[in-house]
Specification:
Layout (H helix, E strand, L loop, with lengths): L4 H10 L1 H4 L3 H24 L5 H18 L8 H32 L8 H15 L3 H12 L3 H25 L3 H9 L4 H35 L7 H10 L3 H30 L12 H8 L1
Helix pairs in contact: 5-8, 5-10, 6-8, 7-8, 8-10, 9-10, 10-11, 10-12, 11-12
């Protein structure tokens, strides 16, 4: 019989040392937290966070840079900015979709419970690690060199990185599924494709769609800066305004990017809630006050 909450509290009061960590555990925690704190302080000191130059730079940022950004100007160019912002959204959308489509079959090859041939599973995982090891800007520079300036380079850069990211996310979702549903389809005589269709996808598809929506939101922010290296999108106009010290027009572009990201975040959040729920678990009987009183009696 499991002890009740009241009995556990009585034992904790009578035998406090039995519920406290051992000296070895306390020493281990002290070493971990002390080492992490010392490493953090050293890194801050090593990179100049404790110097007057850093403090002076922060003060200048507030008094000079921010003051020069406002009020935003360039409203007469707003139609062009909106058109290029739409191009940025299209880059993020196409890059995310291409990455998800390519990563979907690869994620089954990268899952331990789906791919019994370990060298292929290991090689697929390492291939995904290679793709996401480089940032979007690095891939954008490569594709700008390969296929020229424009949004195509940005789309390919996003897609390449997202293949590696989605393979990792999708394969982990597949590895953490409940095998009982798969065993039921297998016991009913289902082949491998039917096991995936009826035993795997109903469990992992909501999580896959949720991860895809989140990465679309992330890629909207990434696509906004790929134009700095000539890969299309609003980033090209932003970099051009910053180089020309047209900070007030740059401020208008930044505001547009922020509002767009807010809108994408809101819409993707609503879609994720519709797909996988809002995260609120139902109240079970053990949580009800009247049931707790009955158990105490």
């Amino acid at each position: 019989m499991m002890p009740t909450h009241i009995e556990i509290e009585e034992l904790r009061t009578r035998l406090p040392r039995a519920f406290s960590p051992s000296p070895q555990e306390r020493l281990r925690r002290l070493l971990v937290w002390g080492g992490a704190t010392a490493l953090t302080v050293y890194c801050l000191y090593r990179f100049g966070f404790f110097t007057w130059n850093f403090i002076d730079g922060i003060l200048k940022f507030g008094s000079v840079v921010v003051a020069q950004l406002f009020p935003p100007t360039g409203w007469e160019q707003l139609p062009m900015f909106l058109r290029v912002m739409g191009e940025t959204l299209a880059m993020a959308f196409l890059g995310t979709v291409l990455g998800a489509v390519v990563a979907f079959p690869l994620s089954f090859l990268a899952s331990k419970n789906m791919m019994p041939f370990r060298p292929l599973q290991f090689g697929t995982r390492r291939f995904a690690d290679l793709l996401r090891a480089f940032d979007y800007l690095i891939w954008a520079l490569i594709f700008v060199r390969a296929i020229g300036l424009g949004p195509m380079a940005g789309i390919m850069a996003i897609a390449i990185v997202e293949v590696g990211t989605f393979v990792k996310l999708y394969s982990e979702a597949i590895e953490n599924l409940d095998r009982k549903q798969m065993d039921g389809v297998r016991a009913a005589g289902g082949n491998r494709l039917q096991i995936i269709r009826y035993g795997v996808l109903p469990q992992v598809l909501p999580m896959m769609v949720s991860n895809t929506l989140y990465m679309f939101e992330h890629n909207t922010r990434s696509a906004s800066i790929l134009g700095i290296v000539g890969a299309g999108g609003i980033g090209f106009l932003l970099a051009d305004r910053l180089r020309a010290y047209e900070l007030q027009e740059a401020c208008l572009i930044i505001i547009m990017v922020v509002l767009t990201v807010y809108a994408i975040d809101f819409l993707s959040k609503k879609l994720r809630e519709r797909i996988i729920g809002d995260g609120h678990r139902p109240q079970v009987a053990d949580d009800l006050p009247q049931f707790a009183e009955l158990k105490a009696k």
